Amino acid sequence: MDLSILWYLVPSVIMFVCGVYGFITRKNMVAILISLELMLNSADLNFVIFNRFLFPGSMEGMVFTLFAIAIAAAETALAIAIIINIYRSIGSTEVTETNKLKH
Asked: CA-CA distance, 87 to 82, in Å (whole number)?
């Protein structure tokens, strides 16, 4: 493996680990959504990195990343709408408080 690829992969791994840590430890839905977006951005960065180093003349990794960004934006808009509706119903965005929705 080329050593210069590690200079690009290390920040991606750090972003992904921070996203996983935030996703597991946070109780606020907005913080969980931000952590999820951090993990998705790390995966997009990996697509671009591996495309550049494995297939330098092609653009498939970049095109796939653009589609992934578009899907992530739609997912974020939908998730924020759901979080706003939950906040209107129970007055909190804590995951542990969603049990109130059962009643």
From this structure: 9
